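Worked example

This section walks through a single chain of length 176. The input is the sequence exactly as stored; nothing has been trimmed or padded.
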Amino acid sequence: MLQFAEVLPAIRAKVDEDLGLSGLARDRVLATVVRLLELTLIRVGNEEYARCIAGTDITAKDFRTWAGTVLAANALLALASDTPTKKNITEAVRSVASRLGNTPRVCRKCYVHPGVFGAYVEGQLVSALQPRASDGTREQVASLSSAEAAVLGLLRERLAGRKPKPNKMPARRHAA
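Given that input, the structure is written out below as C-alpha coordinates.
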Protein backbone atom coordinates (compact mmCIF):
# COMPACT_ATOMS: atom_id res chain seq x y z
CA MET A 1 0.00 0.00 0.00
CA LEU A 2 2.76 2.48 0.92
CA GLN A 3 4.69 1.66 -2.24
CA PHE A 4 1.61 2.37 -4.32
CA ALA A 5 0.94 5.69 -2.56
CA GLU A 6 4.55 6.72 -3.04
CA VAL A 7 4.57 6.02 -6.81
CA LEU A 8 1.09 7.46 -7.37
CA PRO A 9 2.37 11.01 -8.05
CA ALA A 10 4.71 9.66 -10.77
CA ILE A 11 1.85 7.64 -12.27
CA ARG A 12 -0.40 10.71 -12.35
CA ALA A 13 2.35 12.86 -13.91
CA LYS A 14 3.04 10.32 -16.66
CA VAL A 15 -0.67 9.80 -17.32
CA ASP A 16 -1.11 13.59 -17.64
CA GLU A 17 1.85 13.73 -20.04
CA ASP A 18 0.58 10.84 -22.18
CA LEU A 19 -2.96 12.21 -22.27
CA GLY A 20 -1.44 15.22 -24.06
CA LEU A 21 -0.25 13.07 -26.96
CA SER A 22 -2.09 13.53 -30.24
CA GLY A 23 -4.27 11.05 -32.01
CA LEU A 24 -4.73 7.55 -30.70
CA ALA A 25 -1.15 6.81 -29.79
CA ARG A 26 -0.88 3.62 -27.72
CA ASP A 27 0.34 5.47 -24.61
CA ARG A 28 -2.50 7.99 -24.87
CA VAL A 29 -5.11 5.24 -25.00
CA LEU A 30 -3.49 3.39 -22.11
CA ALA A 31 -3.24 6.61 -20.10
CA THR A 32 -6.97 7.08 -20.65
CA VAL A 33 -7.60 3.61 -19.26
CA VAL A 34 -5.48 4.32 -16.18
CA ARG A 35 -7.23 7.67 -15.63
CA LEU A 36 -10.61 5.94 -15.90
CA LEU A 37 -9.38 3.22 -13.55
CA GLU A 38 -8.52 5.81 -10.93
CA LEU A 39 -11.61 7.97 -11.35
CA THR A 40 -14.21 5.22 -11.62
CA LEU A 41 -12.49 2.48 -9.55
CA ILE A 42 -13.45 -0.08 -12.20
CA ARG A 43 -11.67 -3.40 -12.44
CA VAL A 44 -9.59 -3.93 -15.57
CA GLY A 45 -7.68 -6.90 -16.88
CA ASN A 46 -4.53 -5.40 -18.43
CA GLU A 47 -2.26 -3.41 -16.12
CA GLU A 48 0.96 -3.43 -18.14
CA TYR A 49 0.95 0.34 -18.75
CA ALA A 50 0.44 1.18 -15.06
CA ARG A 51 3.24 -1.21 -14.10
CA CYS A 52 5.54 0.29 -16.71
CA ILE A 53 5.05 3.92 -15.69
CA ALA A 54 5.15 3.12 -11.96
CA GLY A 55 8.31 1.09 -12.24
CA THR A 56 6.83 -1.42 -9.81
CA ASP A 57 4.30 -4.23 -9.77
CA ILE A 58 0.94 -2.49 -9.23
CA THR A 59 -2.53 -3.67 -10.11
CA ALA A 60 -6.06 -2.34 -10.46
CA LYS A 61 -6.64 -3.65 -6.94
CA ASP A 62 -3.98 -1.22 -5.67
CA PHE A 63 -5.98 1.72 -7.06
CA ARG A 64 -9.17 0.37 -5.48
CA THR A 65 -7.50 -0.42 -2.14
CA TRP A 66 -5.89 3.01 -1.96
CA ALA A 67 -9.22 4.69 -2.75
CA GLY A 68 -11.04 2.46 -0.23
CA THR A 69 -8.50 3.26 2.46
CA VAL A 70 -8.71 7.02 1.90
CA LEU A 71 -12.52 6.93 1.68
CA ALA A 72 -12.74 4.92 4.92
CA ALA A 73 -10.41 7.30 6.75
CA ASN A 74 -12.45 10.30 5.61
CA ALA A 75 -15.74 8.60 6.51
CA LEU A 76 -14.47 7.76 10.00
CA LEU A 77 -13.12 11.28 10.39
CA ALA A 78 -16.56 12.66 9.53
CA LEU A 79 -18.18 10.28 12.03
CA ALA A 80 -15.64 10.99 14.77
CA SER A 81 -17.10 11.19 18.25
CA ASP A 82 -15.84 11.15 21.83
CA THR A 83 -15.75 7.36 21.80
CA PRO A 84 -15.01 5.20 18.75
CA THR A 85 -17.90 2.87 17.99
CA LYS A 86 -18.40 -0.28 15.93
CA LYS A 87 -21.46 1.45 14.47
CA ASN A 88 -19.24 4.16 12.95
CA ILE A 89 -16.88 1.55 11.49
CA THR A 90 -19.85 -0.32 10.02
CA GLU A 91 -21.24 2.92 8.56
CA ALA A 92 -17.87 3.86 7.05
CA VAL A 93 -17.39 0.39 5.54
CA ARG A 94 -20.90 0.45 4.05
CA SER A 95 -20.18 3.82 2.48
CA VAL A 96 -16.90 2.63 0.96
CA ALA A 97 -18.42 -0.68 -0.17
CA SER A 98 -21.16 1.22 -1.96
CA ARG A 99 -18.62 3.39 -3.77
CA LEU A 100 -16.47 0.40 -4.77
CA GLY A 101 -19.40 -1.83 -5.69
CA ASN A 102 -18.52 -4.54 -3.17
CA THR A 103 -20.19 -6.07 -0.16
CA PRO A 104 -19.20 -4.53 3.18
CA ARG A 105 -17.50 -7.79 4.19
CA VAL A 106 -15.29 -7.88 1.08
CA CYS A 107 -14.64 -4.16 1.36
CA ARG A 108 -13.44 -4.35 4.96
CA LYS A 109 -11.33 -7.44 4.37
CA CYS A 110 -9.76 -6.49 1.04
CA TYR A 111 -10.06 -2.78 0.29
CA VAL A 112 -9.29 -0.84 3.47
CA HIS A 113 -5.89 -0.89 5.16
CA PRO A 114 -6.32 -2.16 8.74
CA GLY A 115 -4.17 0.70 10.05
CA VAL A 116 -7.09 3.07 9.49
CA PHE A 117 -9.39 0.98 11.68
CA GLY A 118 -6.63 0.52 14.26
CA ALA A 119 -6.03 4.27 14.54
CA TYR A 120 -9.79 4.86 14.84
CA VAL A 121 -10.36 2.23 17.55
CA GLU A 122 -7.35 3.53 19.51
CA GLY A 123 -8.77 7.06 19.37
CA GLN A 124 -5.89 8.30 17.21
CA LEU A 125 -7.44 8.82 13.80
CA VAL A 126 -8.47 12.45 14.21
CA SER A 127 -5.11 13.57 15.61
CA ALA A 128 -3.29 11.54 12.97
CA LEU A 129 -5.18 12.97 10.00
CA GLN A 130 -6.24 16.54 10.74
CA PRO A 131 -2.83 18.18 11.15
CA ARG A 132 -1.45 16.64 7.98
CA ALA A 133 -3.13 19.00 5.56
CA SER A 134 -0.67 21.69 6.59
CA ASP A 135 2.51 19.76 7.38
CA GLY A 136 5.40 18.85 5.08
CA THR A 137 3.83 15.56 4.00
CA ARG A 138 1.77 17.36 1.34
CA GLU A 139 4.80 18.93 -0.30
CA GLN A 140 6.63 15.59 -0.48
CA VAL A 141 3.93 14.12 -2.71
CA ALA A 142 2.54 17.12 -4.55
CA SER A 143 -0.04 15.35 -6.70
CA LEU A 144 -1.68 13.59 -3.75
CA SER A 145 -4.72 15.30 -2.30
CA SER A 146 -4.43 16.53 1.28
CA ALA A 147 -6.59 13.57 2.37
CA GLU A 148 -4.31 11.13 0.54
CA ALA A 149 -1.18 12.73 1.99
CA ALA A 150 -2.69 12.51 5.47
CA VAL A 151 -3.50 8.81 5.05
CA LEU A 152 -0.03 8.13 3.65
CA GLY A 153 1.51 9.83 6.70
CA LEU A 154 -0.73 7.84 9.05
CA LEU A 155 0.19 4.53 7.43
CA ARG A 156 3.89 5.36 7.39
CA GLU A 157 3.78 6.12 11.12
CA ARG A 158 1.83 2.99 11.98
CA LEU A 159 4.05 0.74 9.90
CA ALA A 160 7.13 2.31 11.49
CA GLY A 161 5.68 1.49 14.91
CA ARG A 162 4.97 5.10 15.88
CA LYS A 163 1.44 5.86 16.90
CA PRO A 164 0.02 9.36 17.10
CA LYS A 165 -1.21 10.59 20.45
CA PRO A 166 -4.86 9.84 21.25
CA ASN A 167 -7.44 12.44 20.30
CA LYS A 168 -7.79 15.18 22.85
CA MET A 169 -11.46 15.92 23.10
CA PRO A 170 -12.53 18.98 25.08
CA ALA A 171 -14.01 18.23 28.48
CA ARG A 172 -17.79 18.32 28.49
CA ARG A 173 -19.47 20.86 30.67
CA HIS A 174 -22.44 19.70 32.64
CA ALA A 175 -25.29 22.02 33.43
CA ALA A 176 -25.53 22.87 37.13
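What to look for: Residues 2-59 form one domain.
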